[in-house]
UniProtKB/TrEMBL annotation:
Residues recorded as bearing N6-(pyridoxal phosphate)lysine in the entry: 57
Domain Orn/DAP/Arg decarboxylase 2 N-terminal: 35-271
Species this chain originates from: Marinomonas spartinae
InterPro entries in alphabetical order: Ala_racemase/Decarboxylase_C (IPR009006), De-COase2_CS (IPR022657), De-COase2_N (IPR022644), De-COase2_pyr-phos_BS (IPR022653), Orn/DAP/Arg_de-COase (IPR000183), Orn_de-COase (IPR002433), PLP-binding_barrel (IPR029066)
Gene name tied to this protein: ldc
Main EC class the enzyme belongs to: lyase
GO biological process: putrescine biosynthetic process from arginine, via ornithine
Gene Ontology cellular component terms for the protein in this record: cytoplasm
Keywords, sorted A to Z: Lyase, Pyridoxal phosphate
UniProt keyword annotation of Magnesium present: no
Family in the record: Belongs to the Orn/Lys/Arg decarboxylase class-II family.
Protein name: ornithine decarboxylase
EC number: 4.1.1.17
GO molecular function (one): ornithine decarboxylase activity
Amino acid sequence: MTTDVYSFYTPERFARFKAFADTKETPFVVIDTQMIDEAYRELTKGFPIADVFYAIKANPAPEILTLLRDRGANFDVASRYELDKLFSIGGISPDRVSYGNTIKKAKDVRYFYEKGVRMFATDSEADLRNIAKAAPGSRVYVRILTEGTVTADWPLSRKFGCRPDMAMDLLILAKELGLIPYGVSFHVGSQQRDIGAWDAAIASVKVIFERLKDEDGIQLEMINMGGGFPANYIARTNDLATYAEEISRFLEEDFGTDLPRIILEPGRSLISNAGVLVSEVVLISRKSHTALNRWVFTDVGKFSGLIETLDEAIKYPIHVEKQGELEEVIIAGPTCDSADILYEHYKYGLPLNLAIGDRMYWLSTGAYTTTYSAVEFNGFPPLASYYL
Ligand SMILES: Cc1ncc(COP(=O)(O)O)c(C=O)c1O
């Protein structure tokens, strides 16, 4: 149950992380942008038919945005603040942006429209009517609900999307309102371990495409397959090449050679593996003289970037340098909030000789950490980040 760091990073790569980390006070995350570049290449090689819209929410650092801008990526943006951040790096035209959040204020839609953005996601009539008023003539795509919440480690599907019959009604209404009914989107859930989830979603999309064409004369042009591609955590997944192969096959089975524009919105799979979060052990204790498990308190927690440990959903591989006999431990953060327990049911094995002051290396933590960090809970500053 201990992590073999070299099954996640080559010795050279980890040595590079560590050499940099050794010069810094914990806690922080170090991100190797070269790994993001490699992940981007791998994704575009696997899906040559797709346009990539990076889901900025995963990590909006200018270093990452600039790299992906230069590689020709597009961007999935969730709020006007992300849009401002994206445009502040310069060199990105608004046709490379999609407003992917289905929950938004009319004035925010207007803000995007005024900045030149013309592609909007929706999943409800009220939002669609807002888009028609605030962003007239724009392209809209409707997000559908998908299955697969059980096999995704960080499910997204219940809150977003609507049933296919409602999606069809919305696309018809979009046309009536003077918008361009552009396509259908879905997100099978983040860190989706069952590739079959895409098969079911693509099949639903196919039905929508056909019915709208046959019954309403609406020819949709685009499928947005969202994110959901895997990072390397403790629970194993197939590799990205297998995802790409299988999902491309599903598309071909349903759409043949007459493929619409395909959009992907990866976040986690592009960024996570490139980050190593480094923390320090603050305290090790037992709750009684005879307690079997030790508690290891460290200087990061749920409020400093590791919120995806909620319900122990994401199990980050943890590396420590000490070796020797392992003991199952409970791992908790440094704040005065009892919700700040990271892993209690899933028992990590850490060496018995682990001591206060030792460092812990949390692997694959490049995505959904820096931005989730609280600004000042218990006075702790937000998680620091460095980009190699
Ligand atoms: C609309 C949308 N697209 C893409 C993503 C990125 O998903 P992932 O990190 O699983 O690649 C998210 C994640 O929340 C999302 O909400």
